[in-house]
Amino acid sequence: MTLLFSSRKMRNMFYLIEKCSHVFEAMLDRETNLSNELETRLVTARYTIECIGACVFGIDANTMTGEMQDNPFSRIAALTSPTKYAAFIRGVRNVWPSIFYGLGLQLMSKQMDFFKKLITSVMNQRQNKPSGRNDFLDLILSWRLKQTIDGDSITYIKSGGRHRVSLKADDDLLVAQCFVFFNAGFETSATILSYTLYELAKNKEIQNRVLAEVDAYMERYENRLCYECVNEFPYLWAAVEEVQRLYPVLGVIFRETMENYTLPDGLIIEKGMRVHIPVYHLHHNPMYFPDPEEFSPERFLGEEKQKVNPYTYLPFGQGPRTC
Predict the structure, then answer these.
(1) Domain 1-202, what fold?
(2) Which family does it belong to (predicted)?
């Protein structure tokens, strides 16, 4: 999986992101001509689904140009939108996994069946072998040919030893990997984009500063975006990081201890115990972030960013299983 996110491959895929951005701009022009009110979460989801389709699966999802009702990716996105019942069942699974699995409960079985048909169809179009695009589906197909998935080596903190995990790559596992990649990719990105637009709309001064930074960049590079542009938008990126502090997509991180651990006060966390890390509480704790309810990108700008205490800002988790 890590190989997919190398600098070279990200650079090679950037033109796809740029293409999706132009389509997104045209869609916004078209939609705003029809109405002055747009459902931001829906609009950003259409954009992120298009990006995932192009960069990950090598197909045109048509979520920003075609009819949404008949679009297979849009149907999957709609199926994965959380309902109150699904949120409750997910909570049961996270807090009481033995009860969840003991009762034979399931999450997203219909979505998985639909997604399996879609991915199998795309695999067949590529004749079940890598196409040379170097996208995520090529990686999946290479695993299918090898019949194994080799994970990254994990270094154990105490012993310093390294361990690599290999799994048998059957079709169910490969489709599950595709589903997780799609769902996690479009959902989290669309949510962060929505909240970023929301906070910029509420804070006109910050919005103007972000626009000035982007306009200055576009003027320097003759209205062309390049892969390195991310490094030239420090204030915009600080605003996005502040959004992730205020609205973490992972409100709680769940982990299971692999061995006994003694806290400084003597309390022992026993092996096998599930640990819930309250990310939302950490991000909104005035001990770590003064005036925590205030939207202030300056927290993540320049020297101020270095003052953020380690492990108090966890938008993507930490450690070997960081997102």
Answers:
(1) Cytochrome p450 (1.10.630)
(2) Belongs to the cytochrome P450 family.
